[in-house]
Write a structure and sequence with these properties.
- The protein is an alpha/beta fold.
- The protein has five domains: about 180 residues, Nucleotide cyclase, GGDEF domain (Alpha-Beta Plaits), CATH 3.30.70.1230; about 190 residues, Rossmann fold; about 45 residues, no CATH class; about 70 residues, Arc Repressor Mutant, subunit A (Orthogonal Bundle), CATH 1.10.10.10; about 220 residues, Tetratricopeptide repeat domain (Serine Threonine Protein Phosphatase 5, Tetratricopeptide repeat).
- The protein is built from 51 helices and 16 strands.
- The strands form three sheets. Strands 1, 2, 3, 4, 5, 6, 7 and 8 form an eight-stranded mixed β-sheet that branches. A five-stranded parallel β-sheet has the order 10-11-12-9-13, sandwiched between helices.
- Helix 38 packs antiparallel against helix 39 and helix 42 runs antiparallel to helix 43.
- The longest helix is centred in the first third of the chain and has 29 residues.
- The protein is elongated and about 140 Å long.
Amino acid sequence: MTTAVREERRLVTCMFVDVVGSTELTMRLGAERLKRELGAAFTEISGIVTAHGGTVEKYVGDAIYALFGAPVAHEDDPVRALRAAQALREWCAAGAAHGHPFMVRVGIETGEAIVDLEAAQSTRQQMSVGPVVNIAARLQQRAEPGEVLVGPSAREAARDSAELEAVGQADLKGIGQVAVWRLVRVGLPSRPALSFVGRHAELELLQLAHQRAQKGRSVLAIVLGPPGQGKTRLVQEFLDQRAQAAHLITARCRPVGETGVFAPVRDILGVTTLDVLAEQVGRICSDDVECERVVAGLAESAGIAASASLAKLPAAEREDEIVQAWRRYLGLLGSERLVLLAIDDLHWADPSLVKLVDRITFGGPRVLVVATARPEFAEASGIRPSGDRFFIELEGLDEEEAARLAREAGGDDARVVARAEGNPLFIVELARSRTATADELPLTLQGALGARLDQIGPADRALLSLAAVAGERFTAEDVAFLTGRDPAETARTVERLVDLHFLDLAETGYRFHHGLVRDVAYGRILGAERMRAHARFARERVHSEDAAALAHHWWEALRPPDAEWVWAGDPGLPAMRREAFRAHLAAGAAHADHFAVDLAVGLLERARGFAGDDRELAMAHHALGKAHQRVLRQDETWAHLMRAIELFRGSGGVPVEAYVDAAQATYYTGAFRQKPSEAEVTTLIDEGAAAAEAAGDRRSLALLLLARARYLSILHGGEPEMTAPHVDRAIAAAEASGDAETHFNALRLKAVQLTNEGRLVEVGPVLEEMGRSLGRADAVERLLYFMRLSWQHLLMADLDADEEVVGRMLALAEVMGPHNRTHAWGQAAELYAARGDWDKAIELAQRTAKLVREEKESAFCGMAGESLRDGAIAHALRGAREEALALVRLIPTNDSEVDAAVQASVPRAILGFPSPEADAHLGERRRGWWNWSEAVVRAVVLGRADDAEAALANMAPVTETSPAYRALAEDVRAAIAEMRGGPPARYEALRRIGFHGWADVLARRAVAEY
């Protein structure tokens, strides 16, 4: 059974009202009539007090004592008291008209008092006790008729809503020296707390950034300055002027450990679920494929949902797709009015968000991003310079501006201005702090904030400190839980702290007015109390699916070395460590899935520290391996996965998934600094395949077999006898598993294998089977399928069918990121070059060149080189030497400089330049007919009959099965005969099948000797 609380410590505002009249009036009215008039006056006064939310506690002679804040508190009780006092003065001024001859004198002060809740509900007598009552009574006694005197705490609480005139220090009997103010009038409650002071030049720079964005540019403006320098205030002033005509989006960053990587991105989107995001995008996007890509990219970057399609891509391509999704989304949002994105404290953001902001605003859609950050961010961020980058660094206010701000904040001591050194927040906090006029001024901004915290009373300080445990954002229920206080009373206290500028209202609860306020409040809690509060909050207030928040709170609860003594002897410690392990493992894996790898690794390393046995340790190593794999840190990936498998073996058996992850790590052999041996890899995959077969896991078996086939293909240059058996087994296993995606990928690898062997007739049925399941494939898989199908049509000389496929492929790729777009463009260029449609080849090459120049963060591959090469060939054939060389210089070298040299070799040959790197490359790589297609053409152009003959011999597998390459071989032989004194080659075989472009190139001889 619980007992109701009789008394509470509350912040209240006390008001004493003394009714006065002249001696002449007393003599004239007589005692009986005077008593009747006073009774009527008390009734009027009581009515006015009650109407403004006050409670009359008692009458003391000719005075009335009223209380604001009990039994029901309001967030603006001090202002309510002042309004009541002003109404009383107005009542007195109209006395003659109303038939009463009285004046009042009023004293008001705010402070803590012990409130008897039982008396408040019944007699309302003796319901409050505390020094604040005595101060208000003494102020009333010092007031002149018609005057309202206000104490320092009431003045502080109501300063933004009333005009108060300083009276000076008053020596109050039994209390001592107290600063006193006189009420002039109650102003509008909505007027700003402080004027915007200075910063006119910086504001003009923001206006200039706005003008550039309005003209259709992507603009980034970053306001830099140390804490409290007025960055947020400057941006708010700018937004007040410009936001109404824009589509305004705001976000605020905090240290990633507190809020996770994705919190500010979700703020920008304003959603937290995939369904709501899809609905939001669907309202502004009409193309289904585009909607799919935009939603996938946004959801991935916000951590709302992992995209299986994006997860398959290399990190650079995945980033491209996310950037493209954001550009398209912001472009759609800004179709009618400028999108204005304001991000506070960008220095706290994860590097992935900083990079996203950089790329969105570097040649992206019409958008203005205005961010605030600390000074060191400018150099550390790596943001590229351009004419649309504004770095606005705030210095301290000058002396005149600082003095003006101090006066507005209520400080008239010159030492406040000197000590603050122009820092606006420091000025305001010092001016508002009662210690600002004492001999010992706080030396730092944190000291000034601490001084303000000391003024609000221990209970409220404790509330703020425990609110800081909950996080940068919290609800009143969170704080009530941590403090153990009544939820309704806590809500009122929190509202009051909003009024006092310690907290701000947020969409879902509250947040600290400034990050430093939270930091100072958080630092006031003793370590042991703080750790126990985090543990309680993790257990009972954090949702079980919010792994990132759970990991944060459990880490703060159990972080070494303090945990050793805080939880010493606690029987619940092992259970807490298990909870911490699970939370860190889940949070790390979730962040890795969204490619926030550095944070994921940090979380998973902590999980490893919390592991209670070898199996948990194995799980941590397994997750660490998968995290490193996301960004191709293959040595670290392999080391962690091997350690995980070793630990799993000794603790109950290896999960098949661990074998699959290790096998798939071998896809990227080029990313290893020290490659595992072939024997090590094949032994591991065989062990995993046996485990998958024993478990009846056909899908994992298919994945392991595919991994082995790909690994051997990479290692041995695509030799079919080494890969074909594994591919066929993988297809059978995938089909038996019923997993459409795995079956699709196995068929694709089969198509690649058959093409590499030159068995093109057999490729067609495989592609047809893939096409039947295309509806279930994602956009990237469909693109890869269309590219493979286009290449097959080209090899089989079916140009009309290829034209139709290329059209579908280009439409699909148009909504994708730069990298995947150039995949489609490179394949399309093959068709245009074959047909001799050089105008289209040049157009695609120019679009590719523009992307390569602008998207410097994209790691373009050889497919971009395809379109650049074909555009360069078109220019070279037309004699446009400089245009051709400009395109050649842009061919990406990300695959390898030698591969780029091979791609450049044909246009260079037409212009008369040798390519010794390509010759050396072919000398080293004599596997695969596809290595020789450009070599044979280059040899003909350069008039090298022997080289052309040698290259043709290496192309034998495909010249037997491909009509296109059979025609190429026929015309190359005619060219060789011509070079050796035979008749002129007419290149009729290629022209008969419509390959006029290939014929044009073979017919051209180098323009210069070398």
